[in-house]
Input
Amino acid sequence: MSSYREDRRADRAAERAQDREDRRLELDAQREREAAQAEEKRKDTDAKRRQEQADRKAKLAEKQAKKAAAAAKRAKLIRWLKANPATLFVAFVMVASIVPAILSQIGALTGASVAAPMAGLLAAMLEGGAWAITFMGKQAEDAGREPRKYRIGTWAVATVAAAVNFWHGLEAYGAHPWVAFVLGASSLFAIYIWDLKTHGSHGKTKAEKKADKERRAHVAARRKHHPQIVEQAVKLQAALPFGALDDEAAFAAAWRIHNGAEPGLSAQLYATATEAVLSLGAAFELGDNVREELLETGFKAARLNPFAELTQTPTSQAGLGENAPSTPAPTGRADGPEGKSEEELEALLPDALAAAAELVAEGRQISAHGLAKKLQIRRVDAAVLRNRVIEQRRLHVA
Output
């Protein structure tokens, strides 16, 4: 019996312990649920707070962007107004001219018993037609087409509108006829202002006009002095596809065809330049052998020159540079075993003169080396012949 009671007590104790454990587990689960709910609520609150902050930042950024865009537009408008004050005032003057013109035309038409709606349409036809043709001409000009017919049409329609306004002004303001001129000008002035704005400010500068004038003068001089070459250049351009050869290239090609040289040069010019070079070389060669006589002449010229301030220094007369001491060239030589005799050299003198002429023609100086090579003789003999040749040329020049 006692064991049964003990078992019952043990069972009840176990049941109570199990109940306590169940309640503990249930409380732990409830606390975990509550903690999870609190964490979820906290996360929702944080997310909501972050979203609100993000929304505020986005709204602030959008507001700042709108302010920046508005400021940029204002700055752009201010810059445009500062850079284009003429355009602003042209627009103002055009409006101030067009509106009175339309009102005057409406008054003229209604005064002639034309219904008001029709008078408004006709006035719009005249003024609007003029401006429609004007803008079509501007579009054609921007596209690279000829705008002349549009400009003629614009001024024709504007003149008709001005005549209507002038006639109306004479009838409505007979006591003040000058008003008629003002009303007539109202249909023309806006067109004139627009024409100045679109064409007057795009004319050529003074430098461009000067360049065009000089270019025309150059072309005229070219046609005057080189007519055959200009004609040949035109033929070359006509023979090739259009635009394949410009004026300068065609003229250069024609010059080469006629003269066989680069533009500006010719056989005659080459011959003149060559002759001048040869003459200069001969003069220097002569001066090298008669230096003392030229220097004496230079001294005399310096003393007798009435323009002393323009005279070179006495030691640089005749283009010979500074007067440096030099050993006079020998005029002869004694007979010796190393060279030819005086009779042989005298016999070679005509050949030496001919060889010297060839050297001058070739643009070279009359030197002992050159004569020795031409005559196939020793240099010592060529030196004596050179002196005699120079003496002969000096006597010929004198």
About this structure: Confidence is low (pLDDT under 50) at residues 304-337. Residues 2-83 form the longest helix (82 residues). DSSP finds 13 helices and no strands in the chain. Residues 260 and 386 are 38 Å apart (CA to CA).
